[in-house]
């Protein structure tokens, strides 16, 4: 969005995340321009790493970069727990400010990164295609890995509880890189820790969303790990994904984000396919299968939101 790009010319991504006035402003931008049914808090899933002692920054054109990646058991052991109500107070202030600005217009969704995704960033030092360092530690030092992920799970749970206390209406756990794991590895090394998060949120009275990318092979495992809503990316047809997840859970998805780069007739045709596969069943949250790409025309996103509302009116 042009409004966001204008802010990014003046402020770094971390400046936007750490300044409640700016984070609120960015959160509200799509609500004002697109017919969305919820606002998503502007933040970054890596924010909990810094108070854990894992410094990072964003390198222009490359994405997040960890200052000193964790590569040994000793490195994992030095990571510390923190109190999110103190160390991430700016995020909670942004939630309160955003809710005042929204004034009930739409719900506000908070979020945090899941254990595997946060661990892989911390260990790889940034994005990875192979996750070789992460898996080497996972396989080679399983006891240290589980201690580290248990700590991550507790931190993520406490952070999301703090967001709920600050006023978000739902929370989402993002596991962006979990598709790098086989089902067997997910069940052994990750599922217990992600389940620990969702179990810790169960008594707090807000809907929970569990989303991963490249998860076609482990959709049932994601369901077992927890979440009232399970996200599905675009690689699996929505009806097939929902069968794997189980119809007792809601589903979020799953238009391919790159479709929005094409002509609107293509966008609408692909949207019709997703909606047809949902079959009018209660519990479908129409969404993209991942994030909007930077070069996506805003008018295509606006047209998509209007079209979905028109096609699903009852």
Question: How would the blueprint of this fold be written?
Answer:
Elements: H1 2-8, H2 13-18, H3 20-33, E1 39-40, E2 56-59, E3 63-66, H4 73-77, H5 84-87, H6 89-102, E4 108-113, H7 115-124, H8 132-140, H9 142-166, E5 170-175, H10 183-189, H11 191-201, E6 208-212, H12 219-225, E7 229-231, H13 238-245, E8 250-255, H14 264-278, E9 284-288, H15 298-312
Parallel strand pairs: 1-4, 4-5, 5-6, 6-7, 7-8, 8-9
Antiparallel strand pairs: 2-3
Number of helices: 15
Q: Write down the oligomeric state.
A: single chain
Strand content: 5-15%
CATH topology: TIM Barrel
Sheet having the most strands: 7 strands, parallel
Supply the helix-strand structural class: alpha/beta
How far is the N terminus from the C terminus?
31 Å
- The largest sheet has its strands arranged as 1-4-5-6-7-8-9
Q: Your description of this structure?
A:
By secondary structure, this protein is α/β, with parallel strands linked by helices. The protein has a single domain, classed as TIM Barrel (Alpha-Beta Barrel). Helices cover 50% and strands 13% of the residues. The protein has 15 helices and 9 strands. Strands 1-4-5-6-7-8-9 form a 7-stranded parallel β-sheet. Helix 14 (264-278) links the parallel strand 8 and strand 9 (284-288). Helix 7 packs across helix 9 (142-166). The protein is globular and about 55 Å long. 37% of the residues are buried. The model has no long low-confidence stretch (mean pLDDT 97).
